[in-house]
UniProtKB/TrEMBL annotation:
PROSITE patterns: HTH_TETR_2. InterPro entries: Homeodomain-like_sf, HTH-type_TetR-like_transc_reg, HTH_TetR, TetR_C_34. Residues 39-58 bind DNA. This is AcrR family transcriptional regulator. The lineage of its organism: Bacteria, Bacillati, Actinomycetota, Actinomycetes, Streptosporangiales. Keywords: DNA-binding. GO terms for molecular function: DNA-binding transcription factor activity; transcription cis-regulatory region binding. PANTHER family: HTH-TYPE TRANSCRIPTIONAL REGULATOR RUTR, POSSIBLE TRANSCRIPTIONAL REGULATORY PROTEIN. Residues 16-76 form the HTH tetR-type domain. The keyword Transmembrane helix does not apply. The keyword DNA-binding applies.
Amino acid sequence: MTRSAFLRARRPEHKQQRREAILAAARELARASGVRNVSLGAVAEAVGLAKSNIVRYFGTREEIYLELLIEEWGQWAEAASDRLRTAGSAEAAVTVLAETVCDRPLFCDLLSHTSTSLEHNVSVPAARAFKHAVHDRLAEMGVAIAAVTDLTEREGGELAAAASGLAGMLYPASNPPPALAQVYAEDPELAASCPVLLPTLVRALRALAAGLPTLRDE
């Protein structure tokens, strides 16, 4: 598509191409500098559009990243479900969940900003679409986990939800900003409090997987 056609974007396929270009630019900017450091203006500049044109497709910066997060949820659910087919225990399922989420740093970064930023300043339709997408992915993963463990589908969904929530909480702590990184480098005692993402996540999820069946009668 030529630049003039891209700027006009009158045909449906051109509009879809523009949406995809905006998402691609936002994705690359987030990978390069982190989600929190990307502004709507930076996305507009990367695509070669004015901010007023960007908001015709995504009402806000947060809606752009919610859309990317929907994609990331789908990719994680697919990858985890594929590997879960060969998991023969709850412990193996935990390892699959932890490894597949940790393999996706952009997903973890987006998760870390979901409730504090990305779910704010969005339209009701965007919020609804996001919540439905997450609900559906967790249901799918619950089924996949229940098929290879003694957990129920509901418990499997809870385990997957915990994996995503804990990953979002642990990711920024395990990737400290420069000032904290220097503090940890200079003080081994404090450095011990900086979590390592994968083993910390595995340990927490193992405890949850072991505990969930004991709560069934409550």
